[in-house]
Design a protein that fits this description.
Helices cover 28% and strands 37% of the residues. The protein is an alpha+beta fold and 103 residues long. A hairpin with a 4-residue loop joins strand 2 and strand 3. GO terms for molecular function: monooxygenase activity. This is Antibiotic biosynthesis monooxygenase. Keywords: Monooxygenase, Oxidoreductase.
């Protein structure tokens, strides 16, 4: 199993709207991809008017991630309205092999 992680930053007053937007776009695309094992989205108020948004998704293999992300699985996937929300973003994602699963 592989964990795929990404972070971006939004204005805190837009955090809820951005989470709802990603639920309709990115998380829906995860669920539609064979080999997706689930995902979570986390938010963290940084106290300076910004909130950090992180997505963590779990996949069967790097090959099935290509079904979602394309050939370059290390490049982050963005959607048309991301520019309306994101004030900063990571352009790449990190992948981690899951060594142990307590679930």
């Amino acid at each position: 199993m592989i964990a795929r992680m990404w972070r971006g930053w939004v204005r805190t007053d837009q955090a809820e709207a951005y989470v709802a937007y990603i639920e309709r776009t990115g998380l829906a695309a995860y669920r539609a991809t064979p080999g997706d094992l689930g995902a979570q989205m986390w938010t963290r108020d940084l106290g300076d008017g910004r909130s950090e948004v992180s997505t963590v998704s779990w996949w069967e293999s790097a090959e099935v991630i290509r079904g979602f992300a394309g050939e370059d699985i290390d490049r982050a996937v963005f959607y048309p309205e991301d520019d309306d929300y994101l004030i900063e973003r990571e352009l790449s994602v990190t992948h981690h092999s899951v060594a142990r699963d307590c679930g």
